[in-house]
Amino acid sequence: MALLLCFILTWQSNAPETEFVDRVAIKVNDKIITQRELVMMYEQRRQGYLQAYRGAQLDEKLKTAWEDTLKEAQEQLLLYENAVELGMALSEEDVRSRLNAMRESNGLSEQEFEEIIQEQTGMSMHDFIEFRKRQDSADTVIHTKVVSQIKIDDSEIAKHHSEHREDYLNPATYRIAEIVLLKGEGDPLAAKIKANSAAEFLKKGGDFTEAAQMYSDSSSKESGGDLGIVQYGDLNKLIEDKVNAMALNEVSEVFETQTAYFIIKLLDRTPPKPKPIQEVRDDIVRELRMPRMESTMATYLQDLKNKYLLQVKTRKPPKDLAE
Q: Any idea where the PpiC domain is (predicted)?
């Protein structure tokens, strides 16, 4: 059930409690978005802002949330009308098939699924299917008529990769073995004494793996203290500072953190390495496409506004939302 709540299909909150007559809010030719649907789109955007931003930035985003929603709704409806004209619009059967696949993957009955849709969006299943039909059809047009038309040459990709190698790196890693003596709640000296005993064992030529198995309080002792490959930032900063100062196969002195005494051995260290261009090609294409996408999309939408009859009948939010 929790998985489905993440899916819900981009919806972020329960239906608003605002009540009003459900009038036509936006119309493109004979296609419409109702005031109720417009409010639901606003609530989705508002909840997204609340999750993504804080402080003054959040305040600024919330100020423009209604206008942003109006703009989004107009564009969606223009694109949906275009999808119908181009024969790209999804049918009700297409949308139902997608939703049924989601429902079945979550092990829900039709009734359970419809109840969740109602709870999360405030829409009946019929209304929700209409919404998704419009939204998914618009996305199809964007991908086919806008995104796919922005061509990125191989030479551009290679140049970007060469100039921004630091942005496409496999992270630096290291590998250590550890002996951990937990301070616990008993005698604070007991762990230190045990750590010193382990250090003395090692100084006399004892094997680190054997020392970890004999002395360590960590579950890693089962593998001789070996933690495997670790990325920087995964462990305590004090440990990583020690790693950076050590040579390969060097064993540290006993050192202390808030919770334990440690002895570590550096087994391996790998610096950041550039990822091959084949591995990051799609990421580079998306990055190069983005600035062109905005202008190409604006031009495409303006052409649709010139082509279709767009009517915006609701420009101000309902009273309950504006208060």
A: 171-268
